[in-house]
Amino acid sequence: MNQQELIPHLFRTEYRKIASVLCKWLGIENMETAEDLASETFLAALETWSYHGVPPNPTAWLYTVAKNKTRNLLARDQLFREKIRKNLSQTDVSEESNPIDLSEQNITDSQLQMLFAICHPSLPAESQIGLALRILCGFGIEEIAIAFLSNKETINKRLTRAREKLRTEQVKIEFPGPGEVAKRLESVLTTLYLLFSEGYYSEIDDNVMREELCLEAMRLTFLLIDNPQTNLPAVNALFSLMCFHSSRFEARKGDAGEIILYDDQDESKWNQELIARGAYHLSQAASGNAFTKYHLEAGIAYWHTQKADTKEKWEAILHFYNQLLQLEYSPIAALNRTYALSKVKGKEVAIVEARRLNLATNPFYFLLLGELYNGINDQQAKQYFQSAISLTKSVAARQVLEMKIKRLDVDR
Fold this sequence. Notes:
- The protein starts with a helix and ends with a helix.
- Helix 14 (293-303) runs antiparallel to helix 15 (311-327) and helix 17 packs antiparallel against helix 18 (363-373).
- Helices cover 71% and strands 0% of the residues.
- It is mostly helical.
- It contains 20 helices and no strands.
């Protein structure tokens, strides 16, 4: 991996670790300072490595620089030190007496504690998720804005208010007690779900997928499973969903980096170990009375690990989508449900349902219509695919749509 690829990769994998440990060490009231120190560490890497080359152990270099920058800031800024000491009461934040611990165990503990601290009930759900995506997942403001179908200015204001609220509430970075876990877990799971989704299909990145985001979401989710207080059915269902989807990573991408659609994927490239692991955690999710959207989406994902185009498969998928829309409506789920309907009851029935959705600003809406009209009215299908191209931001997605149009022209 060359330097141009290495620094963004390390930012994705290490920024959140450094920021979490520094937030815990400095206190949540100094969250922005911790974020700034983490960001300055990567800026230093960009400047230094460009001239002197990449060090033998880049991660260790980043951790050392983060420690030194924190120590230097405390040493040179008397006013900052006084503010920190005042806010932290009797806590001594000097590096000598209270060293910054960037060990693997403390990084793990800090991230989990930080995740639950951010998902504090005093914050609105969208602020909890946005702040967690920013600090723990290293998302940029534009990425968060897209995840919330919002704009950068709104997200910046939301995050600023959230940080201030956590300062006012004097939230501690620690694992919550048993009674608090359930209150915060829903937002925690939503954050991890969004992280995985951004990696699995990015709206703003030209890559087909960003596997490091998916793997990080799976790692954080497994931290919850590994903790007795959070090893709950919903957590297992979410992890199961992630396993099923990630089992097709290798098959989703061609040699030139292009997207390979589900019907064209080589089933032999599907990771059977991940499919088996997903099945295990889906069975674990069945314990108790909890029933969440993650259970339903995991069920849908399971059936997509069965390549055969059978009536049983699509009836099961349609049933899960019907339940999912009753539990929590979303436009994407409605679109996917309509495709499943076409496999069960035919394209003509599905076209009627699709037109009722009327999602004229959504590229997936026109993609669906193009698929449904394919073979019924190919010229109309072509127009819908072109409409989808005009709305999508992803280069990889546009390439897929252009290929669909070429196939229609060939078949005519």
